[in-house]
Design brief:
This protein is an alpha/beta fold. The longest helix is centred in the N-terminal third of the chain and has 18 residues, at 109-126. The chain contains 15 helices and 13 strands. Helix content is 35%, strand content 15%. The two termini are 35 Å apart. Helix 3 (58-73) crosses helix 4 (109-126). An eight-stranded parallel sheet has the order 7-6-3-2-1-10-9-8. Strands 12-11-13 form a three-stranded parallel sheet. Strand 9, helix 11 (268-279) and strand 10 (285-290) form a beta-alpha-beta unit. The chain folds into two domains: 2-336, Alpha-Beta Barrel (TIM Barrel); 345-411, no CATH class. It comes from Streptomyces eurocidicus (Streptoverticillium eurocidicus). InterPro entries: GH (IPR017853). GO terms for molecular function: hydrolase activity.
């Protein structure tokens, strides 16, 4: 089990790449050592690293390597996101893909060639660093592909799959043997029309990444302390396994946080404890990476209110109650934690062909029939797994998952 945090610099947020100060970064990383973490996830801003289609700034790449080295000196492994992409409600895309140069970022040959070159450059520069975990293609890049984005680059699921495979292959060639993956926001699991599908998330890359945010309607519908709210991250972990062809494929809870006002600040520590406890009761979890390390400086304008206070530390590096909750969970795990038993009872998920776009996956979303049934079963003390309807007769696959009893949604009272 790995425990980490998404690193948000205290000075300048991700704009810190413009005024890169390694001393500030070291001070930020030093504050994280109190939590007992073993890794961080970091975010180069794509337009700053590749401001022109044929220019990848050597100095920016050198700064990224310096950050990874500074983390390694503190015993922290580093996962690096490439195409940023989307962060905290802001889009960071280079000028050569927008307005007068508007091109589809997933299908235009020149743009895709440039993206491949960029990911190759970052992965190559880090390939010999022992503390480099691998690349994530980008942070929730799928949000550019459809609604509700105000100016989407629309694609089909087959095009999304081709693009992901090409980006992941580039990372694999540049830094072989590292854990390269991609990360989608929850539309991939919950939106019938979204071109990035559950199968893409659960079958491409070294592991499956899930991002759990209860402002997606969960906390609004079930309340900040509702069973469904506290189990949302665990639910996504288990849901993701339904599409995995490898029954032992690891799942990374790559983002999870306590967003106010959906989770009140005074309730953040309790939410953190409950979320971690339920996630740690899932098998096959590679790691949990909290969002985020430090609060956003309120001198920076125009963030949604919830983004300012998500840190485990304040902007001046004072630990918050949620940070103390994470530190306690990490300590208790290392003192006596163990892999939980496999989940023997599974709820059957029928969303059409599990191998393609899962055209009725909205039943998995908060308020959907499957979501509601899974949460009712879980609230009764059962530890439900999820299996697709197409696998119900696959005795070998069920046995590999440890499942010996399946229950239909209709049978859940």
């Amino acid at each position: 089990m790995r425990f980490g945090v998404n690193y948000t610099p205290t000075r300048g947020w991700f704009h810190h790449w413009l005024d890169f100060d390694l001393d500030d970064i070291r001070a930020d990383l030093d504050s994280l050592t109190a939590l007992g973490l073993d890794h961080i996830r970091v975010f180069p801003l794509w337009p700053l690293f590749q401001p022109n289609r044929t220019l990848i700034r050597p100095r920016a790449v050198e700064q990224l390597v310096a950050l990874v080295d500074a983390a390694g000196e503190r015993g922290l492994d580093v996962s690096v996101d490439g195409l940023q992409g989307h962060l905290s409600s802001f889009d960071f895309v280079p000028s050569w893909t927008t307005t007068w140069h508007r091109r589809n970022m997933f299908t235009d040959p020149a743009v895709v060639d440039a993206q491949e070159a960029y990911l190759t450059a970052l992965a190559s520069a880090l390939a010999d660093r022992p503390h480099f975990l691998g690349m994530t293609v980008g942070n929730e890049v799928d949000q550019f592909s459809g609604d509700p984005h105000p100016d989407p680059d629309r694609i089909r699921p087959d095009q999304a799959g081709r693009w992901l495979r090409r980006m992941l292959d580039a990372c694999d060639r540049a830094a072989p043997g590292r854990a390269h993956l991609h990360a989608s926001y929850d539309a991939a699991w919950y939106d019938d029309t979204h071109p990035f599908t559950p199968a893409h998330s659960a079958r491409l890359g070294a592991m499956t990444a899930v991002h759990s945010w209860v402002f997606n309607g969960t906390a609004q519908r079930y309340g900040p302390t509702g069973a469904a709210t506290e189990r949302h991250a665990a639910y996504l972990i288990e849901l993701s396994k339904a599409w995995a062809e490898d029954p032992d494929r690891p799942v990374w809870l790559q983002e999870v946080g306590a967003p106010a006002p959906h989770i009140a600040p005074e309730g953040a520590a309790a939410f953190t404890r409950a979320t971690l406890a339920h996630a740690l009761d899932c098998t096959g979890v590679w790691g949990i990476t909290w969002w985020c390390s430090h609060d956003v400086d309120r001198a920076l304008a125009d963030f949604p209110e919830l983004e300012y206070g998500l840190g485990l530390f304040t902007n001046d590096r004072r630990i918050k109650p949620a940070g103390e909750a994470v530190a306690r969970a990490v300590r208790e795990w290392h003192e006596g934690g163990r892999e939980p038993e496999r989940r023997r009872t599974a709820l059957v998920l029928d969303v059409g062909d599990a191998g393609d776009a899962a055209a009725s996956r909205s039943v998995c979303a908060p308020g959907g029939a499957f979501f509601e049934a899974w949460m009712r079963v879980a609230a009764r003390g059962v530890r439900p797994a999820v299996v697709p309807a197409s696998r119900v007769g696959d005795v070998g696959w069920l046995a590999a998952r440890g499942v010996d009893s399946v229950v239909s949604v209709d049978a859940v009272g």
